[in-house]
Amino acid sequence: MMPQHLRVFLSSPGDVAGERAIALEIIEQLDNSLDEITMEAIAWDKPGGSAPMLATMTPQQAINEGLLKPSECDIVVVIFWSRMGTPLPEEYKKSDGTRFMSGTEWEFHDAMQSARRFGRPEVLVYRRTEEILLSPGQPDFMDRYEQWQRVETFFKQFVHDDGSIRTGFNRYTRPDEFGTQFRHHLETLARRMVKLPPITPEADDDSAEPPELRLLRQAVRVWEDNDRADDFLWMGRQLDDARTVASRLQPALNSSERAFLKPEHERLLDDIHNPATTHYRRVRIGDRLNELGDTRPGVGLDNNGVPDIAWCAIPEGEITLTDNRRDVSAARFKVAPFAMAKYQVTYAQYMAFIEADDGWYDERWWMAIGTHRDAPSQPRKFDNHPVENVSWYDATAFCRWLSHHLGYEIRLPTEWEWQWAAGGTHPYPWGDSWQHHYVNCRESDLLRTTAVGMYPLGASPYGVLDIVGNVWEWCQNELDNPAVVAFKSRKQRSLRGCSCLSRSHKAVIAYRAGNSPGKRNEAHGFRVVTSNLEVLK
């Protein structure tokens, strides 16, 4: 009996190239492994099968001339993430007279019309739900935003106005998850279409290896074939389940399989030490750690719900406050040994103060330092991001509350302590030359904070992280008279370290800024110090 031939049309914009590569590989694998079925991928990017692009044609015309239409195939696979694609010319219109938003939408429409009239092709729609990073600082921000809006518009047709489902589509988070879904969906659908028995362990594979391990080994091969790209790694529940299976079965794993099964948080933290890791990737790593539950010491709370501070030892020294301000002459200060927090105070740590029964609304922490008002709001409520929008008063009240709970004085650093801990007389915490990927400032184009500690290569000589970038840090002393640290003063207080909104010339250690002690700003945060050296033991 001759095998039955199925043609599978792949349709998508260009932002899901990873998924297309996986789909092409799975179609080829099933073509080789199923005796009763042959499969042929119909795709513009199929190796050796691309449509010629003539100068007289639009891209969609070239594809239509060189390939079968979706309606002429047996199965149509449509994949979306953040882009809809390029709008088609005026001659391509829907029945209501509106233009198609892209060639992918036209292909979906062509397939669905045929499916409703003739029962073929079968249409599988997939949508990647991974978060899309959009920043107003990106040169192509408006284009990316409009593309995302078009995808949102496209998927409105799948639900009724009351939110109930009109027609189905498949969600996935990352390309590896797509591959797992798609292989099962395609084989199940193909068997049903040619009236073969459903998949069973015996029909699927004659080997004695459990199917979980076969799936794992296949995923590792796809990862290797794509140069170990992060998009092809498993994560979350899928990775946890695979690690559980490997622990239970104790199979012989090669080095690639062991690397693939590495715990996700370890992979993520390894990546931030790579100087080639981009600013956008660092954002994703920090936000993913937040989703997983960031367990790094010094980022969250201890078992009693009190901020857990990771301390760095700062030795004694002597420093001159070199000044970018004309109205203040340079002053020299001696620095006694102290301990400085490795990280800026995080949102989770400050919220512990706001929400504690003896916290924000306890008048003890506000005596002699300023008026007591509503708690500050956080622009981005990520537990592992630095707290933002805090005044000098807000920061000082937190220090008093934390001192009470820890049993020793916690305070803001003086400027001379801050500058000495940042690297003393060097221009930057990491040395003498500017390093673009060592700090989150305006040139990173993020225009938002990252989780604390995402730039370990930018650490100070004493291990303090983000001491420049992310948020400005309040210091204890007055701006114009640095030697004055009195709580009752209402004069401007110093800010050091620049923020994610600051240009790089403010990322030098010596740069001084300041503001009114009652002023809140999204770029204002802080870190704490203590003179109690017992915390370092």
Characteristics of this structure?
4-stranded mixed sheet; elongated; 14 helices; alpha/beta; Rossmann fold; 5-stranded parallel sheet; 537 residues; 14 strands; paralog of FGE (formylglycine-generating enzyme)
Word description of this protein:
This protein is α/β, with parallel strands linked by helices. The protein has two domains: 4-204, Rossmann fold, CATH 3.40.50; 279-536, paralog of FGE (formylglycine-generating enzyme), CATH 3.90.1580. It has helices at 17-33, 59-66, 103-118, 141-155, 175-193, 201-204, 211-225, 236-249, 255-260, 264-271, 279-292, 347-355, 392-406, 415-422; strands at residues 4-11, 37-42, 75-80, 122-128, 170-172, 311-314, 317-320, 332-335, 338-341, 472-478, 493-496, 512-515, 524-525, 529-530. The chain has a five-stranded parallel β-sheet, with helices on both faces. Helix 1 (17-33) runs parallel beside helix 5 (175-193). The protein is elongated.
